[in-house]
Amino acid sequence: MISKAERTKQLIIEKTAPIFNAKGFVGTSMHDITEATGLTKGSIYGNFENKDEVALAAFDYNHNEIIAYLRKRIEARTNTIDRLLVYPETYKIFLELPILKAGCPILNTATEADDTHPLLKVKVINALKNWKKAIEKMIERGIERQEVKSTTNASDFAFIMMSLIEGAMMQAKVTGDPEVLKVSMSYLEKLINELKP
Q1: What are the tens digits of pLDDT across the range 16-45?
Q2: What CA dihedral angle connects 102, 105, 109 and 111, to 10 degrees?
């Protein structure tokens, strides 16, 4: 049974996660947090030591939402190529997805926290490492199953794939123009299909 304190803490995280993703750590004020949650400043600080702690929990929440969204779609497919194609299919329409409307939490947080917030920077670094590892494992499994060319360098491909996704998202978010997503994700689909043996 979840306690009242745990429920309150979860409410704070869920209500503030989209705000932190959209406005960033610096841009999110205590007023934003109290307004979104309907709680007092004292109640927020009764559950979290400071704004930093709320921001770290919000990043985890946003990141886990995206992982869950992708995982559900990946696990519904059996072939490695089809599984990898979930990424460009998802990010091609990311501006239309509620969980990604404010942008990718990794990208949003990375651009803000790289020089200003060491704890958030660590969260982003770990998220990137885990994402890369997941793509590498998928490709390596595909090589074992003979669904992916044996000459494929899983690490290199993961770097390129992540860079195409994050770079396209950054441009689309800043310009508000989804064309860069369509072009970049179509190119990524082509690269993934070229992995077939």
Answers
A1: 998 888 888 888 899 999 999 998 888 888
A2: -70
The CB density around residue 61, as the number of other CB atoms within 10 Å, is 18
CB 88 within 8 A of CB 186: yes
Instruction: For residues 4 and 190, give the distance between their C-alpha atoms in angstroms, rounded to a whole number.
Output: 50
Tokens coding 71: 């995982």
Tell me how far apart the alpha carbons of residues 60 and 17 are, in angstroms, rounded to a whole number.
9
Can you name the CATH fold of 59-193? Tetracycline Repressor; domain 2 (1.10.357)
pTM of structure = 0.87
Q: Are 26 and 68 in contact (CB under 8 A)?
A: no
> At 196, is the secondary structure helix, strand, or coil?
coil
| Calpha distance 70→28 (Å, rounded) | 27
* Domain range list for the chain: 59-193
For the stretch 39-90, pLDDT in tens is: 888 888 889 998 889 999 999 998 999 899 999 999 999 999 999 999 999 9
Q: What is the number of other CB atoms lying within 10 angstroms of the CB of residue 88?
A: 24
